């Protein structure tokens, strides 16, 4: 009979032990949820920038510069969401 530690969710008998901690699973779910916000934000940034450049072509340079700044900030949130679960699981 296998003895399971309280933090172990799954063990594969006979093949070896595959352990997945609760923190590891929560980290994976947390990153999945953390990626939703930046994904929507990046879509809105590029969509609205394209619309703005179509409406005012003479301001395209300034709009494009601001678009890339917004993209970098939104992408930074996604990278933070990727790193934070690793910090708390190790």
What topology does this entry show?
Elements (H helix, E strand, L loop, with lengths): L21 H34 L4 H30 L1
Helix pairs in contact: 1-2
List the main descriptive attributes of the protein structure presented here:
single chain; 2 helices; mainly alpha; F1FO ATP Synthase; 90 residues
Number of helical stretches of at least 4 residues = 2
The arrangement of helices and strands along the chain is: HH
Helix content: over 70%
User: What is the terminal separation in angstroms?
Assistant: 29 Å
Helix/strand class: mainly alpha
Count of strand segments: 0
The CATH class of the domain at 30-89, by name, is Mainly Alpha
Give the CATH architecture of the domain at 30-89.
Answer: Up-down Bundle
Biggest β-sheet strands, sense, barrel = none
- Described by the principal axes of the CA atoms, the overall outline is elongated
Percent strand equals under 5%
Specify the CATH homologous superfamily of the domain at 30-89.
F1F0 ATP synthase subunit C
Contiguous runs where pLDDT drops below 50 for at least 5 residues: none
CATH topology of the domain at 30-89, what is it called? Answer: F1FO ATP Synthase
């Amino acid at each position: 009979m296998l003895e399971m530690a309280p933090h172990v969710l799954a063990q594969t008998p006979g093949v070896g032990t595959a352990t997945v901690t609760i923190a590891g699973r929560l980290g994976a779910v947390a990153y999945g949820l953390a990626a939703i916000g930046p994904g929507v934000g990046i879509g809105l940034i590029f969509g609205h920038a394209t619309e703005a450049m179509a409406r005012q072509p003479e301001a395209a340079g300034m709009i494009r510069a601001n678009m890339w700044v917004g993209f970098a900030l939104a992408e930074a949130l996604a990278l933070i969401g990727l790193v934070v679960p690793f910090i708390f699981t190790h």
